[in-house]
Specification:
The protein is of the alpha/beta class. It has 16 helices and 13 strands. The chain has an 11-stranded mixed β-sheet, sandwiched between helices. Strands 10-11 form a two-stranded antiparallel sheet.
Length: 472
Amino acid sequence: MTSHSESELAYLSIEQAGRLLRRREISPLDLVNASLARIERWNPSHYAFLTVLADEARKQARLTEREIRRGGARGPLHGIPISLKDNFWTRGIRTTAGSKILADFVPDSDSDVARLLASAGAILLGKTNMHEFAYGITGENPHYGSSRNPWARERIPGGSSGGSAVAVGSGMGFASVGTDTGGSIRIPSALCGIVGLKPTFGLISTAGVVPLGTTFDHAGPIARSVADACILLEAIAGKYPRGEAPPDHRKLRKNRPRRFRIGVPKEFFFERLDGEVRRLVEAAAKKFESLGARVEEVSLPRLTGAIDQATYAVVAEASAYHESQGYYPARAAEYGDDVRGHLEWGHKLLAVDYLGALPRRREIADDFEAAFEDVDIILAPTSPIPAPRIGEKEVHPPGERETTVRAELLRLTRPANVTGFPAISIPCGFTREGLPVGLQLLGPRWGEARLLAVALAYEEATEWHERHPDLS
């Protein structure tokens, strides 16, 4: 076998690693050992993992190598080390959901996602840190330690899938699966300089996932490239409706559209942006024009007035779940302050608030559907600001009064959860301080194939995805 350094192996794409495995230039154990070496070195300072399965992963790698040698390769994920956010049930493996309440919970069955990944031959390295019960957006966790951004340790990675984004962005594994209820895949992916896909609502099963808001929860891939996100999606996605084409990583480049229409919203998405975020996202729109896209303005007239009320529903759903499990208010003292505060708010919401959210969700979806009659993809920032510092509670958007970090980070990602439309965050540059900025692309329902192809076209025309953080 050819000799490769740890960092060379750790930052291979899934596509590259798969080719080397098939040629027997490397083994699954080489990949696992490279990932585990980085976990051992960097997890104590970056808090990406809550549970590391070193012995189990090495054992699985040896079994996988024998399977591949016998010609039993199962697909592109066979032998690839990955992680799972710690709200996915894993049989016989602790699943905390980042909480003190579930600190000793060991499921007796797998989530659908865990089962499908195992069937695809992926090797589970461990379970990643997360904002408690997925009910937060910073990745700060009072029980297990706050995950730290690989580009700047004093800054948040975003959440709630922050540990997954840190693990992938720092080479502690090749990909992860997170959950996204208001932006929890896309925000940490943007702040950590990687790719995060929230697919169409219902495409990936959330059975066996500790829920936040059942009509908002999505599961999806976190990876270092668009093609790798597509590979992960193929392994865990359910069936597409008749007439809708599922994505295929082998065809993304071939199916890249020569002409396509990009919509830039005139309302909501480009308000109150950090100056460097605006500059980089507008540069990305110009890059799309050079790739053959027609970039035009689209209108989402009811979004600004409806989005806050529309998301009351997730607050009510979260509180209802915690009450149904006997967690809240019976064990209120065991929650972190921020999560307990959200649950108290949800406990006080009235039925009229929840019912009032439903027509607002429909209005927003109708406006997006009307826009998608004129364009293929809608372009926007993922986050209006770069990664804030850990412990920072408020930010001051341009031209506005101070607002909370939570509200600002969630502002541009919530619409895709309200509507259930697919959305992807891809890197589009770095601030002068060296912090990543994410570009958000939104597509119509079941439109992942086109969305991923357009994202790949941008990725291959830029070099942002090739940069890796210096963790030293």
